[in-house]
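User:
Hi there, any thoughts?
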Amino acid sequence: MRETVTVSELDLALVNALQLRPRASWTELAPPLGVTASTLARRWERLTEEGLAWVYAAPGREFSRTRCTAFVLVRCRPGTRARIAEELCERPEAVTIELTGPGSADLLIDVLAPDLPALTRFVTTHLEPLPGVTAVDCLFATSLYVEGSRWRLRSLDPAQLSALGRAGARPPEPAVSVELDAVDRGLLDSLVGDGRLGLAALAEHTGTSPATVRRRLHRLTDSGVLTLRCDMANALAGRPLPVSLLGRVPARDIAAVHRALAALPECRLVAAVTGRTNIFATLWVRDLGDIQRRETALGARLPTLEFTDRIVGLHTVKRMGHLLDEDGRRVGVRPIRPW
C-alpha cells in the first residue's frame, strides 16, 4: 500500500522557493515565506531526511551546447527490465532511467556524455551487451530548449515571487567553455549529492578555502557549466504522470513548436533530436486522459506537428543521478560525472 505523505502549504512554498533560489540562506527566504529561518531549517531537514525534496547540481547551458545528450529507447525480453534498470543505475552516463508502459520502449534512458565517442562506447560496450536487451534506439539531442530545472511547483503567490526575484542572484551570463581542474571537479561531485552544502564543508571536501569555493561556484554557474535544481518526490508535485512525446515537424516550424511546448506549465523538457522524429518533449500530466487532451490542443495550434509516439513513464528509478523508490522519494545517490 502506498504510504501517505503529509506536507503543508509551507513545505510546498519552501520547495518552490528553493526551485528559484536553490542556495539561498534561510534568513533570505524567511521574510517572503512569513516564518523564521529556524522554522525553514527544520522543515527542510525533515523533507530531505524523508527523501521528499533535495537540491543538487546538474549540467547547465554550457553542457547542452558543447557536449552530448541522447534519449535512449531500450526494448527488453519479458522479465528482464527491472534487472537491466538496476544494473544501469550504477552507470554514471545513464543519468535518468524510467520504466515505461507498453509501447515502443520498455526503458527510457537519458544519457549524458562529454562527447559522441564516449556516448557511443556506453551504448555499444555497456548497454547493448546486457543480457535481455533486444533493441536500442538513440535519439541524439541537437538542441535542448527546456530542461527540468525550469519546471516550477507554482506554490508561491505573486508577492512572494516578486520578493524572491528582487533578492535573487545576478542575471545569467552567456554560456562559455570552461576548463575544469581538480578543484572544479571536486565541487561538482560534492554538489551533485547535496547542492546546499555550505562553503566551509565544500572547502573541506576540496582542500581549498571558503573564499576560493565561492569564486569557483560563481564561475561554474555563470559560465553555464552547472545549474542548481530543487527536485521532489511525486507526492509533493501532485503525483504527476510523466509522458514523453515524440513528434515530427517541418524544420521551419521547430521554433514555434518549441515556444508552444515551453509555455505549458506541465512541460519538463523540449529537445530537437535526430532520427525519424525531430521533437522530443516530456510533460508531467494529471492522468492518461490528459495526454489526448494536450495533443488535441497542440494539434489545433500547430497543424504541421505530427506526434509519432507517446511513452508513458511508470516508475522513474533514477533521476539525474538520484535513486528513487516507487513513490518518487530519494533513497540514494549515484553521482554523475558528464563533465
Notes: Residues 288-301 form the longest helix (14 residues). The chain has a mean pLDDT of 91. Residues 115 and 289 are 39 Å apart (CA to CA). The radius of gyration is 20 Å.
